[in-house]
């Protein structure tokens, strides 16, 4: 049976081939799946998509017409997939509902520590044999306030590390976590979360209610010397408002592993091109902003779990089974067989 995987990195390929290659006719492509590349899936019953693929109605129709039965996303988030169109076309859709939360939580802390202690600037200097300390002063996290927007598995893992630093913990979530409360997290409204956090880390899913949750008004509430970290979904932050905030000399630092217009940019080599996205280009000019290319999930442990779940999703589909990872099952009415018509979780 034919399986094609899109957006496959060099590090991911051996894990996919080990998990799927011995059972299925597997084709791994580094292409992003979109309207221009959808025809390459012709004759493949299963498409393994990545988070940056564009699976709108037009792409899904091409897949269905080419014989695809299942789209299984190698990620938790699925806001790039038109689930209503998939249901109408009779396509099954699955995702990876969970994997190592430590991968993203630890990466969020890597960004926070690097921004706070000016590590990228320090490394750049020492490579030029400039060993001055001017402009490199950070501050202790111990005793300061960590705000966590979204206290699911990843947010909870982030909170455990914050507790280890001896930080005061604030949280905001529609479904408070007993584990977070046991760690000392105090649940507060968003306004207070923004106003009191010295370090604000975003771990919420991207849904209509959370799009641009960090907008101009939220940024205005934040402390002038706060640090903002986003390893969840780019659309949580109004990037234009963030640029204006930084231009005003506010925020000690920002760490972004995601960006709201990252599709078609992240995961590609753009070094020989003019950066047409003016907002992203401006963000990259700030010395206190660190941007990485959606690699928070990219640990060997997490990717192995993602691949194993993807293999299970394929086996379940072939056996006619549905489960927690099923978003759309053919022949089911809306609201049955998994997720609804959109949305998406945090993580990779």
Automatic annotation (TrEMBL):
Signal peptide limits: none
Protein name according to UniProt: 2-hydroxyacid dehydrogenase
Domain D-isomer specific 2-hydroxyacid dehydrogenase NAD-binding: 110-296
KW Oxidoreductase (keyword) present: yes
GO MF: D-lactate dehydrogenase (NAD+) activity; NAD binding
Domain D-isomer specific 2-hydroxyacid dehydrogenase catalytic: 8-323
SUPFAM superfamilies named in the record: Formate/glycerate dehydrogenase catalytic domain-like, NAD(P)-binding Rossmann-fold domains
């Amino acid at each position: 049976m034919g399986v094609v995987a899109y957006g496959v990195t060099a590090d991911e390929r051996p894990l996919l081939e080990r998990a799927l290659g011995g059972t299925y006719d597997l084709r791994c492509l580094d292409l992003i799946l979109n309207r221009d590349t959808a025809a390459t899936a012709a004759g493949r019953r299963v498409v393994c998509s990545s988070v940056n693929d564009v699976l709108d109605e037009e792409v899904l129709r091409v897949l269905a017409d080419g014989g695809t039965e299942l789209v299984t996303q190698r990620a938790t988030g699925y806001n790039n997939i038109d689930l209503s169109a998939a249901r109408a076309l009779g396509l099954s859709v699955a995702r990876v509902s969970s994997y190592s939360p430590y991968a993203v939580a630890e990466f969020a802390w890597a960004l926070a520590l690097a921004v706070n202690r000016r590590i990228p600037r320090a490394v750049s200097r020492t490579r030029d044999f400039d060993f001055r300390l001017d402009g490199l002063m950070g501050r202790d996290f111990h005793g300061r306030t960590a705000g966590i927007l979204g206290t699911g598995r990843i947010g909870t893992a982030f909170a455990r590390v914050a507790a280890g630093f001896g930080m005061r913990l604030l949280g905001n979530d529609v479904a408070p976590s007993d584990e977070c409360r046991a760690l000392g997290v105090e649940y507060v409204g968003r306004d207070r979360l923004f106003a009191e956090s010295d370090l604000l880390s975003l771990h919420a899913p991207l849904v209509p209610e959370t799009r641009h949750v960090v907008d101009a008004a939220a940024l205005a509430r934040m402390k002038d010397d706060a640090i903002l970290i986003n390893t969840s979904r780019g659309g949580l932050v109004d990037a234009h408002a963030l640029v204006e905030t930084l231009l005003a000399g506010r925020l000690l630092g920002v760490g972004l592993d995601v960006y709201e217009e990252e599709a078609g940019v992240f995961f590609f080599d753009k070094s020989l091109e003019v950066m047409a996205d003016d907002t992203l280009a401006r963000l990259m000019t700030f010395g206190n902003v660190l941007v990485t290319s959606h690699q928070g999930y990219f640990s060997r442990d997490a990717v192995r779990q993602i691949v194993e779940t993807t293999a299970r999703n394929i086996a379940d589909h072939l056996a006619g089974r549905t489960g927690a990872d099923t978003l759309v099952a053919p022949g089911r009415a809306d609201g049955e067989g998994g997720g609804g018509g959109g949305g998406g979780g945090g993580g990779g």
